[in-house]
Amino acid sequence: MVISKKPLHFIVATLVAFLPLVTVANPTNDSTIVEHTSVTTETTTVHHEEESKDLKTEIKEFINHHLQDSYDFHLFSYKDDAEVEHHIGFPLPVILWDNGLHLFSSSKFHHGESAAESNGNFYRLFHGKIYKVANAEEQVAVDAKHHATNEKPFDFSITKNVFMMLVVSIIMFLLFTSLAKSYAKNGGIAKGAGRFFEPIILYIRDDIAIPNIGKNHKKYMSYLLTIFFFVWFLNIFGLTPLGVNVTGNIAITAGLALITYLITTFTANKNYWGHIFWMPGVPAPMKLVLAPIELLGTIIKPFSLMIRLYANIVAGHVVLMSIIGLMFIFKNWLGSSLSFVLAFALSLLEILVAALQAYIFTMLSALYFGAANEEHHHDDAHH
Amino acid sequence: MEKLLEQFSLGLFFWMLVIFVALIFLLKKFAWKPILDAVNEREEGIKNALLSAENAKKEMQNLKSDNEKLLAEARLERDTMMKEAREIKEKMINDAKTEAQTAGQKMIEQAKASIESEKNAALAELKAQVSTLSLDIAEKLLKDELSNKEAQTKLVEKMLGDVKLN
């Protein structure tokens, strides 16, 4: 399969793309790191064992909570002198479809402490998901594996991630429309905040779209530009203390990958399908073997896009938050300051990763579009 | 994998598709198309400006060489004209000189001729007068001779004193 005219470019892109699959640190591994380090602290501070264990689970829960979507925009919590927890943030609308539309504010859940009532139905939060319960007092039933067995209504709530996507969309819309307008006002020269993004737009056009797609690149430009800035901005927002983890959510990356897959499939030319179902230049029996492999390949490609972005962002968040959590476990000037330095360095790395993952997603999408648009020009390669 | 599937939220997936597709189309209409058009236009403008500058430079060079050619031609023409003028001048001077010479020669010759003729006329008159005088003298002498010899010589001398050659 010949994908690119520039094999070196492709090799570098795939190398960078597969790097995170090798080095990825998944959540379970990471919690073992936390445990491991806390074992060492336990040996040194025996009398703090009970407290440290509590802290450990608290950090673990906090990280898990951070990675998950939620129904309210939670900024931070604190305990006052009377040991009463206060949550700072704002609720978001919950939209459910359960034999009729149910629309209510997530403040009704009282942060999962009580069931919310809407049109005679009761709903309860359990591990970040909404379950239907019979009445206000009933708890969500769980099976042996601690999985909820209650009925789940169709959930179209404006969750924190949806809210953040809307915010980023509005920012992008305002930013780039103002950039577009500034051209007319200033005689073809960009002005204002959008000016910073013009070179990036040109980079995506000249170094991602044109080399990979070629003369048909124009119809893909809108998608490539949108996806690059969308992923990049969301990645950057994920690093802010707002604590949003949009691109580290499998549903989001699945949606992005699905759109790339659909665009590739529906804009592909005859040549592309020819290479999939009847690979030219190989003996007939090989063609039969290659067809299902190639067909599977078309699905694996967007699937790898989905997993790559998800895994990178989740891994980054987990590692970063674990190291920040270490500061509270160590509770001494050496360990805490060391983990602070580590967290700082990792944050810088994550800023790079935020841009890099957006670039890789865009680059590989462009590569797939290019493959779908390749003309039949390499006949001599088969002789 | 099980955890991933459990995490997968259909509602979030739905909203993501709606928001993202809407964002693509909105940005396409209001941002990407105008931005890319403006950038393309600017690039075209720069290309055209460079091209026209190059053309202007070439034109300038052509004009310059044309000018030089014209200047050289003019210089050549001036030289030839001056040469011609000098030649004409010299010719005119020579012509005038020869003409004047011939005219002078002619006048001299005429004067000479008239002098000659005058001289001849005067000589002829002198001759005639001399002859009449001689005749007169001879006559008178003859007459006096006939009367008084002394008187005769006196007469002759007197007469000769009267006659001055001129």
Automatic annotation (TrEMBL), chain A:
Q: How does it sit in the membrane?
A: Multi-pass membrane protein
Entry's localization field: Cell membrane; Membrane
GO CC list: plasma membrane; proton-transporting ATP synthase complex
Q: What keywords sit in the KW lines?
A: ATP synthesis, Cell membrane, CF(0), Hydrogen ion transport, Ion transport, Membrane, Signal, Transmembrane, Transmembrane helix, Transport
Record-annotated membrane-spanning stretches: 162-180, 223-244, 250-269, 309-330, 342-369
Q: What is its main location?
A: membrane
Could you tell me which InterPro entries the record lists for this protein? ATP_synth_F0_asu, ATP_synth_F0_asu_bact/mt, F0_ATP_A_sf
Question: Which Gene Ontology molecular-function terms are recorded?
Answer: proton-transporting ATP synthase activity, rotational mechanism
Q: Tell me any Pfam family this protein matches.
A: ATP-synt_A
Q: Which Gene3D superfamilies match?
A: ATP synthase, F0 complex, subunit A (1.20.120.220)
CDD domains membership: ATP-synt_Fo_a_6 (cd00310)
Signal peptide bounds = 1-25
Q: What does this protein do?
A: Key component of the proton channel; it plays a direct role in the translocation of protons across the membrane.
UniProt record similarity statement? Belongs to the ATPase A chain family.
Q: What is this protein called?
A: ATP synthase subunit a
Gene giving rise to this polypeptide: atpB
TrEMBL record, chain B:
Kindly list the places in or outside the cell where this protein is found, as annotated in its UniProt entry. Cell membrane; Endomembrane system
| Gene that this polypeptide is encoded by | atpF
Q: What is this protein called?
A: ATP synthase subunit b
Assembly and interactions? F-type ATPases have 2 components, F(1) - the catalytic core - and F(0) - the membrane proton channel. F(1) has five subunits: alpha(3), beta(3), gamma(1), delta(1), epsilon(1). F(0) has three main subunits: a(1), b(2) and c(10-14). The alpha and beta chains form an alternating ring which encloses part of the gamma chain. F(1) is attached to F(0) by a central stalk formed by the gamma and epsilon chains, while a peripheral stalk is formed by the delta and b chains. F-type ATPases have 2 components, F(1) - the catalytic core - and F(0) - the membrane proton channel. F(1) has five subunits: alpha(3), beta(3), gamma(1), delta(1), epsilon(1). F(0) has four main subunits: a(1), b(2) and c(10-14). The alpha and beta chains form an alternating ring which encloses part of the gamma chain. F(1) is attached to F(0) by a central stalk formed by the gamma and epsilon chains, while a peripheral stalk is formed by the delta and b chains.
Q: Origin organism of this chain?
A: Flavobacterium dankookense
- Please give the GO cellular component terms listed in this UniProt entry: endomembrane system; plasma membrane; proton-transporting ATP synthase complex
Q: What does this protein do?
A: Component of the F(0) channel, it forms part of the peripheral stalk, linking F(1) to F(0). The b'-subunit is a diverged and duplicated form of b found in plants and photosynthetic bacteria.
Locate the transmembrane regions by residue number: 12-32
InterPro entries, from UniProt? ATP_synth_B-like_membr_sf, ATP_synth_b/b'su_bac/chlpt, ATP_synth_F0_bsu_bac, ATP_synthase_B_chain
Looking up NCBIfam families in the UniProt record yields: ATP_synt_b, PRK14471.1
